[in-house]
Amino acid sequence: MFGNKGVVLMERPNVSWDNVAGLDSVKQTLREAVILPLKYPNLFTGRTRRPWAGILLYGPPGTGKSDLIKALANEAADTSFFYVSSRKISSKWSDGENLLQTLFTAAREHKNSMIFIDEVDALCGNCSEYESSRRIKTEFLVQMGGENRNVQKRICVPLPEAEVRSEIFKIQLGKAVHSLTEENFTELGKITNGFSGFDISVVVKEAMLKPVRKVQTATKFRKVEEACNKDPLESDTVNDLLIPCSSEAQGAIEMSWEDLPKNKLLETNVSMGDMLESIANYKPTVTDDDLRKVEEFKRDFVTL
């Protein structure tokens, strides 16, 4: 929208609350601020009971703040959703102010509007040496104040606890074929202390690629039987699917992945070993300095 290469979008995000593990109190507050006033406007009338005009989600990077807002926008189907990338606005030195003006004007023209400003610290951090950057920040503050949209509610989105981390592993695996048990997921949650949701998504992606790499490096394959009908009452099987194997395996056939016929490769399970190896080779992105800054912000600016 506005001809600015995706800086501002008005499409409904394809993210649901189920895509965000844990954070129940944050979800409740967001729904209280947006969904309840939309469904029951009679409850939010007068001067003393009004929905929050502005909400700030803060916390370590990669904890799901953006997905929370996208899930909220998805549920709030009757609102116009504006997504703003602060870094892209800040990089457009010549028209950043005009873009902000256009954004807030468009939002005012819609009866119910939601503006999501991603990485707002990039827009409203310390003024740089550039005059244009200061003008963008000033324009943003004017627009917020002009609409009485000062940040009234500040909500911390923390690093996930062990139980939530286990759930994130499940969400990230999705429908991928794997051999992990409930005990495995519990163990993964316990051994990833300090990992953010983003960190876990990277770990899972790396683990899911490990079976693919085994296919790429394999020199021997063997035929296996696989049910082609998922109904347990049916017994139809396909017995010419192939999986990587060792040279000593019975029925081993010498070939490379490039020799495999199309649709004859059996998808290999992601294993607990794949997960553990991926975790062992990954360094969490959230630092002690990040956590310190969150605590300082909470101490200095959060009163509720």
In short:
The chain has about 300 residues and is α/β, with parallel strands linked by helices. The chain is about 45% helix and about 15% strand.
What can you see in these coordinates?
- The protein has helices spanning 24-33, 35-39, 65-75, 86-91, 96-109, 120-124, 131-146, 162-173, 182-190, 197-217, 272-280, 288-301, and strands at 8-9, 55-58, 80-85, 113-118, 153-156, 220-227, 237-244, 253-254.
- By secondary structure, the protein is of the alpha/beta class.
- The chain has 2 domains: 8-159 and 289-301, P-loop containing nucleotide triphosphate hydrolases (Rossmann fold, 3-Layer(aba) Sandwich); 162-285, Helicase, Ruva Protein, domain 3 (Orthogonal Bundle), CATH 1.10.8.
- Helix 5 (96-109) runs parallel beside helix 7 (131-146) and helix 8 (162-173) crosses helix 10 (197-217).
Give the helices and strands, then pairings:
Blueprint: E1 8-9, H1 24-33, H2 35-39, E2 55-58, H3 65-75, E3 80-85, H4 86-91, H5 96-109, E4 113-118, H6 120-124, H7 131-146, E5 153-156, H8 162-173, H9 182-190, H10 197-217, E6 220-227, E7 237-244, E8 253-254, H11 272-280, H12 288-301
Parallel strand pairs: 2-5, 3-4
Antiparallel strand pairs: 1-3, 6-7, 6-8
Helix pairs in contact: 5-7, 8-9, 8-10, 10-11
